Backbone:
């Protein structure tokens, strides 16, 4: 036996994380390396099931968006949008152009809110050696102020456009219930313009963070941008070359139930695939706003990037994208004063599917309606549900790479936790 | 620490999540302009969603979510033992919230529909108050950021908590919102407890009653009004049962 083989034999590691912190919802990590052999590496979702698809049965179409917003406290606008679009597609309703633009602005507000929350409050503390972002208030008030300002701006956009940040009220079947006043739009625009400096400071900060060097090749699934970087509806695309129309989401997700998880798992061309900011950037890099692409270049982020930790960077790149695009949308809305924002809705029997890119990846809602506009059958496929198998297999590969002489339980626990957090999982959502 | 010569308490706060969307605990961080001062007034010792610190030494427990599995009952009872003050935060904690809708369905069948041959453990949804004693109830889906801040002010400076006896209707009038009934929509504003600031009617959506009944609501008049405006019994009961706060009239 060589010396290095003998060293390997001495490696014994044990990670047991019950209810991982700084993620939305309840998940556990378990890793065991015995005498250099990886004997266990798991990611398990233990969140309580809520049965939204069952609760949707029999509900009136006006209720679906309000109910499904409650699937998630962070991406409720995304759920509400996916829901009302699925209903509109079932009824053959076309949302007026100004209504569609307003929806995208609300969506951008949510993307910024969710990404900033994740980057500063959930992910950054690991890189800065802190238990949370709360001590930043004292140790680095500038960074704390930066995070609070950007998050505040994002929430004010959502409040103004969707009526409320968490659980929106103005996004309804047919379009939007209200158009913000001109002075409100102008104020948001000037706040967005001023936030560009804060974004620059955020990029500078994240450039100093040490992103772990880890690669596991996987498949990335997202909407396909035809002209613009995609957020609401369109064709479905995988980096392995699978392409489908929106209504064909089932062969794109292939949900299945596992014994030990209350969330389902998904697969496509391989044992797992990934969705989210990194998947979107990988599949639609050339549709990003030029300023966002410039930010990507600063981090050497180019397609196809297979380091899951770079999802943090991809989120930051998307923050830049949505801020610049929101400014453009507001300019367009200012030119559309008085335009229709709500279409007439007449329920009819039928099925409708909607795919929306929410902060954590592509989200699908599908409803079947009776002729009175009540739901017969519903199905929701959540981004984190699609990511769970990929996270599980990533942990295995990560442990194999990092279970070397000198590794400690604590360091490995941190690396595994950081890996899961990089996906920004929304576990309650995945167990809707 | 003294401020204006007044001795402040700095209560140790734990935030605990059960079944729900975790949106209420997120509201704690959603009032960005006062977030710094808010965090300075309290000591957050346990808040899984945003911190890896997890001390079991807390005075106040904020409970987010409803109770839907046996292990949640045990966890909640343990928290009750430790906490001096236990706050049911949000509609799920106060009434069960939308999670309560599942109680109308056969749970074995629900399990089969969602999980096929691998059913998962579950039970009928309960509010926090159905499991342990609750000291303070703050309903709302989600809770209102200002109200949560005032709860903290109450804990730190003993300031009284405003108690809203009147219904949401009044807060609509205060902000000159057009009545949803007048645009042909059903609205629970006349019977629902105020305190939210009435954001839904202002955003173009009738009230769905997430804060539960106001003090002594006039149900008789409300039903008469809703029927006069052409809403069916099913529409009215669908609305009343949505957040679980109006079981007293269902």
Residues:
């Amino acid at each position: 036996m060589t010396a290095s083989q003998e060293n390997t034999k001495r490696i014994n590691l044990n990670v047991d994380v019950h209810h991982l912190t700084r993620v939305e919802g309840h998940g556990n990590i378990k890793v065991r390396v015995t005498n250099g052999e990886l004997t266990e590496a798991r990611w398990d979702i233990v969140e309580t099931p809520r049965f939204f698809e069952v609760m949707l049965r029999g509900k009136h179409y006006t209720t679906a968006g309000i109910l499904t917003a409650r699937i998630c406290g962070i991406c409720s606008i995304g759920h509400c949008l996916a829901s009302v679009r699925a209903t509109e597609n079932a009824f053959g309703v076309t949302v007026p152009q100004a209504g569609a633009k307003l929806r995208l602005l609300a969506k951008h507000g949510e993307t910024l809110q969710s990404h900033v929350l994740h980057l500063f409050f959930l992910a950054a503390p690991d890189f800065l050696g802190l238990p949370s972002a709360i001590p930043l208030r004292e140790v680095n008030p500038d960074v704390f102020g930066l995070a609070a300002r950007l998050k505040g701006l994002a929430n004010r956009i959502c409040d103004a456009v969707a009526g409320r940040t968490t659980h929106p009220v103005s996004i309804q079947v047919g379009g939007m219930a209200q158009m913000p006043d001109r002075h409100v739009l102008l104020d948001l625009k000037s706040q967005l313009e001023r936030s560009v400096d804060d974004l620059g400071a955020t990029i500078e900060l994240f450039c100093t963070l040490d992103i772990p060097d880890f690669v596991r090749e996987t498949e990335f699934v997202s909407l396909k941008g035809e002209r613009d970087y995609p957020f609401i509806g369109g064709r479905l695309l995988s980096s392995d070359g699978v392409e489908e129309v929106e209504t064909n989401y089932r062969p794109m997700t292939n949900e299945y139930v596992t014994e030990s998880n209350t969330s389902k798992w998904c697969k496509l061309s391989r044992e797992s695939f990934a969705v989210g900011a990194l998947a979107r950037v990988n599949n639609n890099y050339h549709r990003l706003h030029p300023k966002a692409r410039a930010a990507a270049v600063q981090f050497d982020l180019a397609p196809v990037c297979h380091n899951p930790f770079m999802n943090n960077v991809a989120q930051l790149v998307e923050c830049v994208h949505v801020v610049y695009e929101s400014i453009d949308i507001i300019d367009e809305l200012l030119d559309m004063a008085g335009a229709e924002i709500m279409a007439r809705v007449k329920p009819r029997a039928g099925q409708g599917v909607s795919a929306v890119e929410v902060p954590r990846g592509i989200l699908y809602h599908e409803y079947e309606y009776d002729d009175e506009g009540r739901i017969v059958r519903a199905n929701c496929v959540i981004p984190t549900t699609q990511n769970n198998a990929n996270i599980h297999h990533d942990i295995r590969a990560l442990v194999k790479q990092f279970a070397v002489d000198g590794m400690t339980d604590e360091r490995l626990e941190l690396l595994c936790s950081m890996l899961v957090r990089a996906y920004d999982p929304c576990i309650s959502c995945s167990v809707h | 620490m003294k401020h204006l010569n007044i001795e402040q308490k700095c209560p140790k706060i734990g935030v605990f999540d059960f079944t729900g969307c975790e949106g209420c605990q997120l509201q704690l961080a959603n009032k960005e302009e006062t977030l710094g001062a808010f965090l300075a007034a309290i000591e957050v010792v346990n808040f899984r969603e945003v911190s890896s610190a997890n001390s079991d030494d807390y005075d106040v427990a904020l409970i987010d979510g409803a109770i839907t599995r046996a292990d949640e009952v045990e966890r909640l009872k343990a928290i009750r033992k430790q906490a001096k003050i236990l706050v049911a935060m949000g509609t799920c904690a106060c009434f069960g919230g939308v999670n309560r809708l599942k109680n109308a369905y056969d749970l074995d069948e629900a399990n089969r529909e969602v999980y096929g041959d691998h059913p998962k453990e579950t039970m009928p949804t309960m509010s926090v108050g159905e499991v342990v004693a609750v000291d303070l109830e703050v309903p709302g889906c989600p809770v209102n950021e200002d109200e949560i801040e005032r709860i903290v002010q109450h804990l730190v400076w003993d300031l009284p908590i405003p108690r809203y006896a009147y219904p949401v209707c009044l807060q609509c009038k205060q902000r000159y919102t057009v009545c949803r009934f007048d645009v042909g929509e059903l609205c629970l504003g006349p019977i629902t407890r105020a305190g939210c600031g009435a954001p839904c009617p202002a955003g173009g959506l009738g009230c769905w009653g997430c804060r539960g009944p106001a003090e002594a609501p006039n149900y008789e008049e409300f039903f008469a009004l809703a029927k006069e405006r052409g809403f069916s019994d099913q529409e009215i009961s669908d609305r009343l049962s949505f957040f679980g706060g109006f079981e007293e009239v269902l």
User: Anything to note?
Assistant: Chain B touches chain A through 61 residues (CB under 8 Å). The longest strand of chain B covers residues 12-17.
